[in-house]
Amino acid sequence: MSDLGLPTYVLTEIDSPVRETRLTAVDELTRLAGGADLAMAAAARRALESLTEDDSRSVSAAAAAALERTALRLRPDRVDFGQVAPGTPRVVADVLVDGPPLAIATATVTVSGPGLRAMLAGRQLRVLWQPRSEWLDGSVTVRGPAGWAEVRVTGEVAVAAPPMTRTGVEAQMRAVNGLSTYGPPRVTVLPPPRERSHRVGAAALIASLTALVLLGGVGVAWALVNDGSGGPTGALADPPPTSGPGTLLGTAQAGDAPAPVTTITQEQLAHRIASVARPAVVGTIPVGDEPEGIAVSPDSQTIYVANQHSHVLSIVDAGTRKVTPVTLRDTPRFVAVSRDGRQVFVSMYEDDKSGSGVAVLDAAARKVDHYLATGKQPYALSVSPEGQVWVPIHSAGRIEIYTAGQQQKVGQITVPPNPHAIGYAGDLMRAFTANHESNVVAVIDMRSDKLFKSVPVSKSPHSLAVSPDGRRVLVAGYDADAADLIDTVTLKRTGPFKVGNEPQSVAWAADSDHGYVVNEGDNTVSVVEGSTGKVTATVPVGHSPRTVAVSPDGRFAYVSNGADDTISVLRVGE
C-alpha cells in the first residue's frame, strides 16, 4: 500500500510478505494512531483498517484490536438523572470522552430527546436536561475521526418532589432575582455494562484529513434538540483529561425489573489533573520586546504572546520552546484563541490609541488573515462559548461583539467605564466584565446582550476570570492589592483577599480548585484557594509580570514578564 502520511519504514513493514513483520507494523501503527500528530494518526488508522483485510488472521485480528484501542469511547455510556422535582429548571452530568487525540479531533455532537442539550469541551461532555415532559429517554452521540460512541440519557419528573439526599454530590437548586438556575447537581450515573466504540471508514478519515492537518486545538461544540431533533456541531481537539473520583448511586429505571442500588465510581473530569497548592517555576522562555497579553491554544501545544513594544506576536511551541515571530500592522496588546484553535485574535493600538483594531491570524499558517476595525483601545478580548469574539473597548465603555469566521460586527453593549476583561458562565448565559475606573464587575445577560447588574469590588478591577466549572469569578483589584470572588449564580461577592502588590491579571486552574493572581508590583504570582480565597503560595517570577494563562490540559501556567522579555513556565497541575 502507499500512504505519504506514514514513515517509509512503516510502509515497508506493511508491504512485507513476512507475517511477523506486518505484526510489527501493527504495533507501530497503534503507537502512531495514539499520537498527537493528527494527520499521522489518521494515516495510521487508515493503514490499520486496510490491515484488517490481511490474508493472515493474526494480522487482521491484531489490526482490528488496535483500531478498538485507539477508538473514541464515552465513560459512562449511560446517565440516569432519576426523579427530579416538578419545576426543576435543569440538571447536569459530566461524561469522560476517552481515547487518543485523534478520537475527538473535529468531533461533532448530536442529541435526541426533549429538553436535552450537550456541550463538548475537549474531553468533557456535559449533558444538560431541561425537563419538558414527564419522561426522558434520549441519547447523546459523539462522532469523530476515530469512531463514534453514544450515551443513553434517562430521567423523569416526579409527581411529588423527592426528599433531598446526598449521594456524593449535593442536590440543590437556587433561584436568583427571579431567574431559576442550578447549583451543584445530584447526578445519578449507571455503570456501563461494557465500553462501546465504533470505527469509522477510511472514506470518513480521508474526508477529514485536511481539517486535521489544519487543526490547531480544541473547541467547544453545543448540540441542542427540540422535542427529539438534533444536529451536529463544530470541530474539537484535545486537552488531556482532568479528574478525581466521586461516589454516586445508581437507580433502576421505571418500567424495568427492580434492581439493587449499587455504588459506583464516577470520574469528575475537572479533577483528573489536580492543581497543586504550591506551583513551581520550571522554565523561562525568551520572547519579544515587553510581553503583555498571553494565551494558550486549546490543545495546550502553542503559546501566543503579544509584545507591546514592537509589532510582533511571538508564537511559542510549548514542547520545543521554539519561538516564531509574526509581524503585525500595529502594536499587539492582548491575545485570544478561537474555540477550535484555528484562529488567533490580537487586540492592537499604539500609545496614542491610533491603529486600534484586532488582527485575525490563521493559526495553522501563522500569518494574518485580516484585520478588524474597532473602537479605540481594544483591551483583553475573549471568545464566548458560542464562538463570538467579544472586544472590550477601554476608551468608550462598551463591548463590541463579532461573529465567528469572518468576524462581522453584530452588536455592542454599554458597560461602566472602563472595561478591561471578559469572562463567561456559559450555562447561566452570563458574561462578566472588569470595569477598571468604576470599581465594579458588570454582569451581562447573554440572551439579550443587556447589562443585568453591577457588583462592587475592590478598587481598580484590572482583570477577571470565570472558573472552568462556571461557579466563581476571580477579580484582581489593582489599586487595592487584593482579589475578590463572586458567585456566578447569587452574584454575592466575598473578599477582599490580600494578595501581592498591584495585581494585574488572574486565571484559574483547569480543575477550578485554585486561582492565580499576577502581582506586577512585587514580581510574584499569588496562588489562592478557589473556594475560600486563601493564599496558599506566593511564587516569584520575572520582573514586571503582566498576564497569566493556564494551558487547558491543566499542567502549566505561563506568565509574561514585561521587563525581562520572557515568559515564566509554572507547573501547576499533576
UniProtKB/TrEMBL annotation:
Keywords: Membrane, Transmembrane, Transmembrane helix. The keyword Membrane applies. Pfam families: Lactonase. The keyword Membrane applies. The chain crosses the membrane at residues 200-225. It comes from the Bacteria. InterPro entries: Haem_d1_sf, Host-pathogen_enzymatic-act, Lactonase_7-beta_prop, WD40/YVTN_repeat-like_dom_sf, YVTN_b-propeller_repeat. SUPFAM superfamilies: C-terminal (heme d1) domain of cytochrome cd1-nitrite reductase, Thermostable phytase (3-phytase). This is YncE family protein. PANTHER family: DIHYDRO-HEME D1 DEHYDROGENASE (PTHR47197:SF3), PROTEIN NIRF (PTHR47197). It comes from Paractinoplanes globisporus.
